[in-house]
Amino acid sequence: MTIKIHRGTHQIGGCVTEYEQDGWKLFVDYGEELPGGPKTGDLQVEGLTKGDLSKSALLITHYHGDHIGSIPKLPKDLPIYMGALGRDIQTILSEHLKTVRPEHEAMLERLKSVKTFKAGKTFTFGPFTIMPVTVDHSAFDAYAFKITAKGASVYHTGDFRMHGFRSSKMDKLLRVYVGQVDYVVCESTNVSRPNATSKTEAELKQEFYNLFKKKGGYVVYLSSTNIDRLFALYHAALEAHRPFYVDCYQKKVMDAIVNSDSIWTKSGLYQYCKYPPTPLMCDRDDKKKPFKVNDEFIEFLNKMGYVIIARANERFDKLMTQIPGENVKILSMWKDYVKESSPAYNKDLAKSVGKNFLPMHTSGHIDMKDMREFLSILNPKGVIPIHTDNPEQFAKEFGDEWTVYLLEDGDSISV
Ligand SMILES: [Zn+2]
Ligand SMILES: [Zn+2]
To answer: By percentage, how much of the chain surpasses pLDDT 70?
Structure first.
């Protein structure tokens, strides 16, 4: 088998990996490059973007834009596979965004022909056997893949972490579903962000609860598809007896999780308790009109306090001016989005969140302490870092125990 990294050896967004055996090609991820990062533009790849596609397929690890965002650009007859719930969440997101970002119309069209796989159930494509392994990440229904062909095996990690709610199962999943592999193609986002994972998702949930217990209004900005964080906030709010408000779109995302048959949703974390999230009142026919705010609503907020899941837009900005008292704004996202000097700076978010906010966040990616434990379980012959801006640092950290291959975009190795 040959592994070729088309993109992602020296950048975090837009990784594209190819596995080739006897002329058959299995690609993993085809997403957008991140704003502010290096740009290589549209790739030209034989068997993926052009040429003979009869022996090609694409696997998507998860719905983050840097992994799936460019699939509408791919030829229609290329088969694409992803998790069923991930496809549903991307569909809800694209439906929501299509009025402001027309490229989501094309995404919706392409998603219709995306095939799905199931966690822990192997499937084959040409000479490849593929085992999708469910992983914990800030996107729900995210996967790693064990890819085997002619006796060689590779574990492609996708984005993952070991400090989330579902990470305690990781060790067992790896031992049961993966076992030993020859090579690991490994996400290494946090190699240059050592402080990104200072707490676990469970510790963060406890901090939300401790805060919400103090009576008041709380407005939280987070990614609408960061499912674990959303449900942590929901349960923390209800346990602290604060009503929990979302807009109709956010409710739809949460409903999709609650009503799915994902193996994870048996856990109480992904279920509603007595009071489901309350949708903010709005005009059914025009979702862009301001939320409806009446005296009764204001009185209830005054009496009970509240947790509102907000997004950076005028609708929410207006709502903030109508609801009573001083509220506490919480940024539950990477702080660089509101740092003016950062390439990831988001002007709209910075405007909505303002200057006085509480940062309450932990990374969706594995830290380097957990990375050592993870690699020890699989104990591969070689590791290829991708999804990183500093693979050299990764080699410094782990080169003592494992052979780390530092590739350039377009390089390949035979395994
Ligand atoms: Zn991701
Ligand atoms: Zn990513």
So the answer is: 100
